C-alpha cells in the first residue's frame, strides 16, 4: 500500500524518545512524511487541535486524521502500511509479552531513569540508578527469552519492543555521560549491549537517533530552565 508524502505529517520534538518511536516505525515501513518540529514552550494550534486531551507530541496526522500516543502510533503505522512484515509478533502470546514489556518501560522503568536527573542529592540518585540497573537486569533476561538468540527482540529485524526500548538509548547515554555511570555494558548486560549496538546502526534508526553531545546540551538546557522556573 503506497501513501503519498503529503498525506502524512508527524508533530514532534527532535529530542523526544516518544517521537523517535513514530519516526522509526515510519522509516521501517518506508513511509514518506513531513516532520513538523514543535516548540513546547509555545505549542502550535495544530498540536492543540490534533491532541486536545494530552496536548503532547508525538501526533501522527494521516489523511487529516490525528493519531496520538507513541505506541498507538507504532501499531497504527504497522497496520496501515501492511505490505511489509509486521513489527508486532504474529502469535497472540508473543504480542501480549511485547506489550507487557513496553508498558513496563513507559510506566515504571523510564520514569525512574528520568528521575535520576532531578534527584535531590546523591543518596536519592544512587537509589534511582540501582532501580534502573535492576530493571535492566530484568530486560536482559527478557531479551534472552524473547529474541531466542536472534539480534533483536523482534527476531531478525527490529520490532515493536525494540522500538519501545531502543528509543530510550539516547537518554541512557545522557545519564551515563552526565552522572558517570555505566548502565548498559558488556559486563552487566552483554545481550543488551550487543542489541543496543545493532539497533543504533540500523538504517531505520541511524538517521533519527540524536547525537549524545546534542542531547547532553539539551539536558542541561532543560535543567537550567526548570531550576529557573522553580
Summarize the structure in words.
- This protein has 230 residues and is of the alpha+beta class.
- The protein has nine helices and four strands, in the order βαβαββααααααα.
- The protein has helices at 17-28, 45-50, 70-80, 92-117, 122-147, 160-166, 169-179, 190-201, 212-229, and strands spanning 8-12, 34-37, 59-62, 65-68.
- A hairpin with a 2-residue loop joins β3 and β4 (65-68).
- α4 (92-117) packs antiparallel against α5 and α7 (169-179) packs across α9.
- The longest helix has 26 residues, at 92-117.
- The N and C termini lie far apart (50 Å).
Structure at a glance:
Residues 6-85 form the GST N-terminal domain. The chain is of the alpha+beta class and 230 residues long. It has helices spanning 17-28, 45-50, 70-80, 92-117, 122-147, 160-166, 169-179, 190-201, 212-229; strands at 8-12, 34-37, 59-62, 65-68.
Strand content: 5-15%
Order of helices and strands: EHEHEEHHHHHHH
* Proper CATH architecture of the largest domain: Up-down Bundle
Helix content: 55-70%
| Assembly type | single chain
Q: If you consult CATH, what is the topology of the largest domain?
A: Glutathione S-transferase Yfyf (Class Pi), Chain A, domain 2
Structural class: alpha+beta
Spatial extent as radius of gyration: 18 Å
Give the biggest sheet. Answer: 4 strands, mixed
Write the layout of secondary structure elements.
Elements: E1 8-12, H1 17-28, E2 34-37, H2 45-50, E3 59-62, E4 65-68, H3 70-80, H4 92-117, H5 122-147, H6 160-166, H7 169-179, H8 190-201, H9 212-229
Helix pairs in contact: 1-3, 4-5, 4-6, 7-9
Amino acid at each position: 500500500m503506497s501513501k503519498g508524502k503529503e498525506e502524512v505529517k508527524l508533530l514532534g520534538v527532535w529530542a523526544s524518545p516518544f517521537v523517535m518511536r513514530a519516526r522509526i516505525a515510519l522509516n521501517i515501513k518506508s513511509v514518506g512524511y513531513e516532520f513538523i518540529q514543535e516548540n513546547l514552550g509555545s505549542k502550535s494550534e495544530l498540536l492543540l487541535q490534533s491532541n486536545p486531551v494530552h496536548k503532547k507530541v508525538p501526533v501522527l496526522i494521516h489523511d487529516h486524521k490525528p493519531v496520538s500516543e507513541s505506541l498507538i502510533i507504532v501499531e497504527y503505522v504497522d497496520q496501515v502500511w501492511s505490505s511489509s512484515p509486521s513489527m508486532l509478533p504474529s502469535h497472540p502470546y508473543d504480542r501480549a509479552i511485547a506489550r507487557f514489556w513496553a508498558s513496563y518501560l513507559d510506566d515504571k522503568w523510564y520514569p525512574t531513569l528520568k528521575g535520576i536527573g532531578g534527584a535531590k542529592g546523591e543518596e536519592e540518585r544512587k537509589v534511582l540508578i540501582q532501580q534502573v540497573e535492576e530493571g535492566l537486569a530484568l530486560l536482559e533476561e527478557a531479551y534472552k527469552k524473547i529474541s531466542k538468540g536472534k539480534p533483536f527482540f523482534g527476531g531478525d529485524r527490529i520490532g515493536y519492543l525494540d522500538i519501545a526500548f531502543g528509543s530510550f538509548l539516547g537518554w541512557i547515554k545522557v545519564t551515563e555521560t552526565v552522572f558517570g555511570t555505566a548502565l548498559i555494558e558488556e559486563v552487566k548486560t552483554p545481550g543488551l549491549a550487543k542489541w543496543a549496538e545493532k539497533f543504533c546502526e540500523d538504517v531505520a534508526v541511524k538517521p533519527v537517533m540524536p547525537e549524545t553531545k546534542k542531547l547532553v546540551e539539551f539536558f542541561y538546557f532543560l535543567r537550567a530552565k526548570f531550576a529557573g522556573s522553580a
